[in-house]
Amino acid sequence: MRLAFVLGEIGSGLRRNLSMVVSVILVTFVSLTFVGAAGLLQLQIGQMKGYWYDRVQVAVYLCTENDTSASCASGAVTDEQREAIEADLQADRYVETIEYEDQETALTHFREQFANSPIVDSITADMLPESFRVSLVDPEKYEVINEAFSSKPGVESVSDQRELFEKMFTYLNLASVAALSIAGVMLVCAILLIATTIRLSAFSRRRETGIMRLVGASKAVIQLPFVLEGVIAAVVGAVLASAALWATAHFFIGNLARQYPTTAFISSEQVLYLTPVLLVLGALLAGVSSLLTLRRYLKV
Questions:
Q1: Maximum Cα–Cα distance across the chain
Q2: Burial environment of residue 115 by CB neighbours within 10 A (0 to 12, 13 to 18, 19 or more)
Q3: What's the confidence (pLDDT) of residue 1?
Q4: How far is Cα 148 from Cα 94, in angstroms, rounded to an integer?
Q5: Is this prediction's pTM over 0.70?
Q6: 94, 97, 101: which is closest to 134 by C-alpha?
Q7: Are 231 and 284 in contact (CB under 8 A)?
Q8: Spans of the chain, pLDDT less than 50
Q9: H or E segment to which residue 192 belongs
Q10: In what order do the strands lie in the sheet with 57-62?
């Protein structure tokens, strides 16, 4: 009997404040979508770091004939210097594999990477340095390799490809922070709107709640319908946010994964990990906001 009464009160409240309930659903949907987007970005950053850091290489560039850097003041690398550098790399305990790239191979790679650039035809093989592409046992040990080989005769510079990825990850992290900031503003809006909806609902039913107090209804029975109204609206918004994030991952990110098969992208299944978080967050938002509002405006 009590359950039927509570459910009836919830239905009545949702019908009376339908426009406000829809507003709560939409605001919760937008705010939790931004929260989920920030979560997706963090998942993507973690996925890409785990993928690329295992494949990242250190490039040991050798001096060329026309190199003007201070480390190449003695001219182009000699055969003896090249062999000594390769031998030292092979003997280094932090080095896993070594791949030599001559100038012709470097030119081929350059043309592949900058196929649409107007300068591609003006670059010749002698303008590009030879290099050793080194895979490390531990990518974090780049500084050890840099210190050991940057000053060797015939070495122009030592470059860590992680620097390029770090810039990309920095931008992704900034985008994640921006999404969280917008989500924070929207969550505040959602809390205020839920509080307003509950307050109006309590005001419109003050006669019923007064009668319930007179007949001895408990505080929990009187407040529960109001709380559940807000929770239901917020949970619906969380479900919509989860569906939107899943669709984004399935269609947009899935399409990118098909276009760039060598890049690690998150899957739509991973988005499902965020769904319980969004549902719990939405329910907590509504529940806490409703309880605080009822304590102030509904004296039982």
A1: 100
A2: exposed
A3: 41
A4: 11
A5: no
A6: 97
A7: no
A8: 1, 5, 300
A9: helix 162-204
A10: 95-101, 131-136, 57-62, 155-160
Distance between CA atoms of residues 211 and 191, nearest Å: 29
Strand partners, 132: 60, 100
The residues near 123 (Cβ < 8 Å, ≥ 6 apart) are 107, 110, 111
Q: How far is CA 299 from CA 225, 259, 271, in A?
A: 15, 60, 42
Name the token pair of 235: 């949970």
How many other CB atoms are there within 10 angstroms of residue 136's CB atom?
A: 19
C-beta separation of 264 from 44 below 8 A: no
Distances (CA, A) of 55 to 49, 68, 106, 179: 10, 31, 19, 29
Contact criterion met (CB below 8 Å) for 106 and 128: yes
